[in-house]
Hints:
Blueprint: H1 25-30, H2 39-42, E1 54-55, E2 65-68, E3 71-74, H3 80-88, E4 93-96, H4 104-109, E5 113-116, H5 126-138, E6 143-146, H6 153-164, H7 173-180, H8 187-195, H9 201-205, H10 219-238, H11 253-268, H12 278-299, H13 305-327
Parallel strand pairs: 3-6, 4-5, 4-6
Antiparallel strand pairs: 1-2, 2-3
Amino acid sequence: MSLNFCGYGIKTKFRIQFVLRSVRLTTLILAMSWMGGNTLGQVAENVLPRLTAKKLEIGELPNAILVCEGVVSGGLPSDEDAFAKLKELGIKTIISVDGAKPDLEAAEKFGLRYVHMPHGYDGVSEERGLELAKALLELPGPVYIHCHHGFHRSPAASVVAAVGAGKLAPEIGVAMLEFAGTSPNYRGLYQSAREARAFTAAELAEVASEFPAVVEVPPMAEAMVDLELVFDRLRNFRVNDWKSPTNHPDLKLAHEALILREHYTELLRLQDQEQYSTEFWQDMRKSLELAEDFERATQAESPMAGKLNAAFLKVEQDCKLCHRTHRDIPLKEKKIGDLSYYRTRNSIQNASPKK
Ligand code: HEC
């Protein structure tokens, strides 16, 4: 086992080393074990960190990256082949950090433990960071930390968890996100990586060893997960010239467009439950109109590709615009009422009240 593995090098000069080539995974991951609590203590003063993350290039596990010993970050294990792959790699625990409900049945079938610790695109709160670090220290490893695509939230969660558990040098957190392809637009995720620190034993001791398999997510996040599913199906139509996808000939375009529009209607019904701003709900009403325009384009007797493309593009751009305006604002810059997963927790109680 090498100390260099988790970013603690024996070089005196700061060095970032991206190891891009694919690695002999099974050997690597099977050989993994926790580095123990005294890792930091073993690092000499003049030793500076370097990044030694590896892209694993496994078809079943999108964007899988070996973050450090015992921690792999990646995308959703979406079918049994993916779970079989995790098992083959020696993974023992899976941590989902997005809002979708984990597939517990598949995990159980392969003898894997699933833990649900979601966070938003606005960053990883201090509490969630502590819980993630505790999970790394207490649950059987290696651990696979995933979100939907494996580009944004899971690398951020992995950095906060691994740094928090003393398994990764804090100085390389940001480089890890860049390596994973995390979009710089997610400033909150970068902020979490930049501010990640090793938690003290006392801080970790205060965190309950509760690692739930599924947690409730805010209604807005839950609705968004469903919206994304239908949106992804429509993307499959688009790449097939708006004909039913070859692997799903049963799907009908106008029907999918109707479901998309209905999701926006449902989202607007969340006004009683979700404390978003007036502007937010105004934006959501405009989003509904765009979904209606798209639906109309699909209802034409012979829908025209040009019109469909244009109307769908508007819906797509609108997802991004709303997220940028309301969702992706770093946790620390948010106001009470804007907050998502942690709106009732301590970390946001210092946020400024919403005007
Ligand atoms: C008018 C605003 C708005 C629009 C339009 C919108 N979203 Fe969202 N979306 C949000 C907000 C706010 C959240 C964060 C909810 C939370 O964390 O509680 C979110 C969260 C998400 C999430 C993360 C869910 C999770 O795992 O936590 C996904 C995925 C998503 N949206 C997909 C989409 C897609 C796809 C579209 C377009 C088809 C879209 N959204 C349109 C506001 C919007």
